[in-house]
Amino acid sequence: MNARSAGERFTGFLITDRWNGYNWIPTSKRQLCWAHLVRQFKGVEDHGVHGQRIGQQLQACSASMFSHWQRVRDGTLQRSSFQQYMGPIRSEVLELLREGSACGVQKIAGRCREILKLQAALFTFVRVAGVEPTNTIAERAVRPAVLWRKGSFGTDSAAGSCFVGRILTAVATLRMQKRNVLDYTTQACEERLRGQAAPSLIPTALLDESRAIAA
């Protein structure tokens, strides 16, 4: 997605990869996707003995983190204990990245330095409840759009692209909220015919909170 579409007044947390288009968001409000990071750690292995050791150790840290996180999600580990367990893992990950950034292999050093620039976004999920360590949920949400594009070969006009973007966004958003897509679309069309605004895609609770803040 276009990062700016989140809005200039965005106040939540975004789970992202390291694409530069997200750099306008403060790192304190971001969580780097660990699924992407693990793939990058695997890539480090391809650069000599030194890279193999660092890459494998980073992957081992990631595996430990995901093991603890799964226990948090299934309710067998308290967040307070998880945060304690993550202390040594966090320290080891940062130390390995610093070691990699100072090594003589350009591709390893460059990758590690780029990740360290965003280190404030590495462990947001540890300190903020409700933030996930991966953007798997978002990728699942856009999967139907990817399949549609592959099957239909896209659109032939700017207007068609605009419509597709809007309708697929609406469908994904409504499904996440367990709202009926046909009911919403029907109501939106009816309101349009009456000259009224379409019903909001934002959950009612968030709208009420936003109005309270504005007041």
Shape: elongated
- Helix and strand content put the structural class at mainly alpha
The total beta strand count reads: 2
Spatial order of strands in the largest sheet: 1-2
| Total of helices | 9
Description:
The protein has helices spanning 34-44, 48-73, 79-101, 106-117, 124-127, 136-152, 158-176, 181-193, 204-214; strands at 14-16, 30-32. Helix content is 63%, strand content 3%. The longest helix is centred in the N-terminal third of the chain and has 26 residues, at 48-73. Helix 2 runs antiparallel to helix 3 and helix 6 (136-152) packs antiparallel against helix 7. A two-stranded parallel ribbon has the order 1-2. It has nine helices and two strands, in the order E-E-H-H-H-H-H-H-H-H-H. It is an all-alpha fold. The chain folds into two domains: 3-127, no CATH class; 136-214, no CATH class. The two termini are 31 Å apart.
List keywords for this structure.
two-stranded parallel sheet; 215 residues; single chain; mainly alpha; 2 domains
State the gist of this model.
This protein is mainly α and 215 residues long. The protein has helices at 34-44, 48-73, 79-101, 106-117, 124-127, 136-152, 158-176, 181-193, 204-214; strands spanning 14-16, 30-32. The two termini are 31 Å apart.
List the topology elements.
Blueprint: E1 14-16, E2 30-32, H1 34-44, H2 48-73, H3 79-101, H4 106-117, H5 124-127, H6 136-152, H7 158-176, H8 181-193, H9 204-214
Parallel strand pairs: 1-2
Helix pairs in contact: 1-2, 2-3, 3-4, 6-7
